[in-house]
Amino acid sequence: MSTASPSPDQPPPWRSGTGAPPPPSSVNQFSDWAPGLVIFAGVLMLINGCFEVLRGIMAIADDDVFLSTPRYVFRFDLTGWGWTHVVIGAIVALVGAFLLKGASWARWAGIAVTALSALENLLDLPYYPFWSIMVIAADVLIIWALCVYRPDTTG
């Protein structure tokens, strides 16, 4: 197979409108299946997972950073809750990394762990409200991006 490019005065056939675009190469299979929203979701999952791990470390290291709401229905020990954030955050980041690598199972796993992250942050809302709202908003964007992707199954 020749790798010679067309002459400088003549555009490639797929750019001039006279031919079809070149077939996708086997080296670049990632761009064949993952449109922009899936890439966006994977990157946001990595960022969101790191945020959750950092939040968990804050709760484990120093409980005084968080608000104390004495009459909240879902009261938890902040050190235990910090470990929950660390574990779920690490799982979210790990699934995001697999999503970016092209694992087909990672889309559904991403929806599940991101929904779990949103629920976790809803329960944790009184302890650190602004951060919880930001993470829930990111989780909703991730779930949306993963749900609207429809792979082409006709090929």
Give short descriptive properties of this protein.
6 helices, mainly alpha, 155 residues
Describe this structure in words.
With 155 residues, the protein is mainly alpha-helical. Helix content is 63%, strand content 0%. The chain has 6 helices and no strands. α3 (36-61) runs antiparallel to α4 (78-101), α4 runs antiparallel to α5 and α5 runs antiparallel to α6. The longest helix has 26 residues, at 36-61. The protein is elongated. The mean pLDDT is 78.
Q: In summary, what is this structure?
A:
This protein has 155 residues and is an all-alpha fold. It has helices at 13-16, 29-33, 36-61, 78-101, 105-123, 129-148. It has six helices and no strands.
Topology overview:
Layout lengths: L12 H4 L12 H5 L2 H26 L16 H24 L3 H19 L5 H20 L7
Helix pairs in contact: 3-4, 3-6, 4-5, 5-6
Which structural class is indicated by helix and strand composition? mainly alpha
Query: Oligomerization state of this entry?
Result: single chain
Order of helices and strands: HHHHHH
Any low-confidence stretches, pLDDT <50, length ≥5? none
Radius of gyration: 22 Å
Strand content: under 5%
Instruction: Report the count of strand segments.
Output: 0
Percent range for helical residues?
Answer: 55-70%
Q: Main sheet, how many strands, which sense, barrel? A: none
Shape estimate: elongated
Give the overall average pLDDT. Answer: 78
